[in-house]
């Protein structure tokens, strides 16, 4: 299993901070978090599975 970091951050502009804290601090009010959680296939509010599938993990052969 691999984590595709480019895929994780493809919808996130890392040079722009949307709140007081730098980056995603996993708060539901943190505007930096929704794109990251969506890529991971997680619902930011509930912590459960989102309606869209994750796109950052994939299986690879050795």
Structure summary:
With 62 residues, this protein is of the alpha+beta class. The chain is built from two helices and two strands; from the N terminus they run βααβ.
Secondary structure topology:
Elements: E1 2-3, H1 5-9, H2 34-40, E2 57-58
Antiparallel strand pairs: 1-2
How does this model look, in words?
Helices cover 19% and strands 6% of the residues. It contains two helices and two strands, in the order βααβ. Strands 1-2 form a two-stranded antiparallel ribbon. The chain is globular and about 40 Å long. The N and C termini lie close together (10 Å).
- State the helical fraction: 10-25%
What does the oligomeric state look like here?
single chain
Q: Structural class, please?
A: alpha+beta
First-residue to last-residue Cα separation? 10 Å
| Rg value | 13 Å
**Tell me, what's the shape?**
globular
Strand order of the largest sheet: 1-2
The portion of residues forming beta strands comes to: 5-15%
Order of helices and strands: EHHE
Number of helices: 2
Largest sheet: 2 strands, antiparallel
Care to count the β-strands? Answer: 2
Poorly predicted runs of 5 or more residues: none
Report the average pLDDT across residues: 90
